[in-house]
TrEMBL record:
Disordered: annotated segments: 398-424, 442-485
Name under which the protein is recorded: Secreted protein
Domain of life, per lineage: Eukaryota
Biased composition (Basic and acidic residues): 448-463
Biased segments, Low complexity type: 398-418
Organism (species): Aedes albopictus
């Protein structure tokens, strides 16, 4: 029993939740409807038997907000028709009038707005029936994207103007928005907005009510409202919002191959890898911009022009080729892989849109904001494997040349015997004193090694050899005996010469002192 009660309570709660949700949605819809105007499509003549939807115009339920009236199509603007201050202050000419439409007997009829008792009403007519409604729709040129022109018309023109704006919901033979110019308008608007009926008589007629009259009047001339759509656009000065840009990169293998050298000498191996991918470019849709119109876009990343159709996602199949080459030794090969990043980018942007028209009129420019989508292949690069031998698949050893500089200092012990010159020798002086016969002519002042002294002993005529130590001992005047002992074998004449030389050295030293 308790289980049934819980189940029943659960179903009741679900019903209450559903009802509450529907109520909230209804309130939200009412709030949105109060602040946002409902928009209906505008049709225009394309050919004799066909109408098309306008990309820039719309019929919006009138709410009187400034944002709506900013782009509403005017039938009278006080700034364009200056009047005297008395007239402007005394009548409705001080207020701007807009093109509007209402339904009369199920048929949409075009008219114009005017002020009445501090409220805006729409006055329109169905031939002889003139109506005034407080609830109506106004014609809006969304974001100012359309170019409108009042084209002069008379009864002798039997065909509708291409681009003529329809007051109805797309039927070819329904009414079109037209106007008639008053000759003496006085306190009234100079133009009265009415309807062009293409089926009335030959060439059609314009029906517009005259001021103060309850019936409409048939006119054989007037103006028909025509929309001139651009034949091409140009989107330039594109600035991406980098902070809100989203980028996704997917690393993709574009292709692979093997380069080999089967020749007997080192050669350059080369090949090509061809790959394809889908490149996508899309700059979104905008109110007031004609979809499908040829558009030249200056790419913000490459500054190169790209041709697209506005509002249509452009998908191109791209085919590209990459050349690859390398130098290989005989009997070796290398694996090659081509990689790339398939990059998807979504980013908000603001730019300048320039529109060109087929009537050779001046181009118009306006700023817009949008959202772009781009898919492209980026960062294409080549990766090589290690080089290997074709015969057995083993890797080819790589030789690395390393330059090493080593400085080694080697000191070898060498013994050098250098002669010590005796600059002030008294030998020549002694020779003169003793008549040259006392000192042996074969005496020399050479310093020799002991081996040379030994060899000199084998010569028949004896020579005397004097070492540096013996000379030093004789020069000091002391240790003459020890100095003499350094001489191993002397002749008698050599001994006498030695004594004489020592005595001379001592005397010379004494004189210097």
């Amino acid at each position: 029993m308790s289980t049934r009660r819980r189940s029943s309570n659960s179903r009741s709660w679900n019903r209450c939740s559903t009802i509450l949700s529907l109520a909230l949605l209804t309130v939200a819809a009412a709030l949105i409807g109060g602040s946002w105007a409902m928009t209906n499509s505008v049709f225009k003549a394309f050919s004799k038997d066909q109408t098309v939807t306008s990309s820039t115009l719309g019929w919006e339920k009138f709410n009187g907000e400034k944002t709506q009236l900013q782009y509403a199509v005017t039938s009278y603007n006080p700034a364009e028709h200056p009047r005297s201050k008395e007239l402007v202050d005394s009548d409705q000419l001080s207020h701007t009038s807009y093109v509007c439409r209402i339904q009369i007997e199920g048929i949409y009829c075009a008219g114009q707005t005017h002020m009445e008792d501090s409220s805006t009403i729409c006055t329109a007519s169905l031939q002889s029936d003139v109506r005034r409604h407080r609830t109506f729709e106004v014609l809006v040129n969304r974001n100012g994207g359309g170019k409108l022109k009042w084209q002069p018309w008379n009864k002798f023109r039997t065909e509708k103007f291409p681009g003529a704006v329809s007051a109805s919901n797309g039927k070819v033979d329904d009414y079109y928005v037209a106007r008639y110019k008053l000759v003496n308008h006085g306190h009234h608007h100079p133009y009265i907005v009415g309807n062009y009926d293409p089926l009335e008589k030959l060439g059609g007629r314009i029906y517009a009510p005259l001021p103060g009259m309850q019936d409409t009047v048939e006119h054989e001339k007037g103006d028909i409202l025509v929309e001139i759509e651009p034949v091409k656009y140009e989107l330039r000065n594109i600035k991406l919002n980098k902070l809100r840009t989203e980028i996704k990169k997917n690393t993709t293998i574009l292709g692979s191959t093997i380069l080999s050298n089967i020749e007997d000498m080192t050669n350059q191996a080369e090949t090509v890898i061809t790959y394809d991918y889908a490149k996508v470019t899309y700059y979104g849709r905008q109110l007031g911009v004609g979809n499908g119109v040829p558009t030249k876009v200056i790419d913000p990343r490459t500054q190169q022009p790209v041709d697209i159709f506005w509002g249509v996602e452009l998908t191109e199949r791209k085919f590209e080729t990459k050349a690859i080459n390398t130098i290989l030794q005989p009997g070796t090969a290398i694996n090659v892989t081509l990689l790339g990043n398939y990059t998807e980018m979504e980013a908000p942007y603001h730019a300048l849109l320039k529109a060109y028209y087929d009537d050779n009129s001046d181009a118009t420019s306006r700023k817009l904001t949008g959202y772009m989508l781009s898919k492209d292949m980026e960062d294409v690069k080549i990766e090589f494997s290690p080089i290997y031998w074709i015969e057995n698949g083993t890797l080819v050893p790589t030789t690395t040349t390393t330059t090493t500089t080593t400085t080694t200092s080697t000191t070898e012990a060498t013994t050098t015997s250098e002669p010590v010159p005796i600059t002030d020798t008294p030998l020549a002086d002694l020779s003169n004193r003793f008549g040259g016969g006392v000192i042996d002519e074969e005496m020399s002042n050479e310093i020799n090694s002991r081996e040379e002294a030994a060899s000199s002993r084998s010569i028949d005529k004896p020579e005397s050899s004097i070492s540096m130590s013996s000379i030093g001992g004789a020069g000091s005047g002391k240790r003459q005996s020890s100095g003499a002992t350094t001489i191993t074998r002397w002749s008698s004449s050599g001994a006498i010469a030695l004594v004489v030389a020592a005595t001379a050295v001592i005397n010379a030293a004494a004189q210097w002192i």
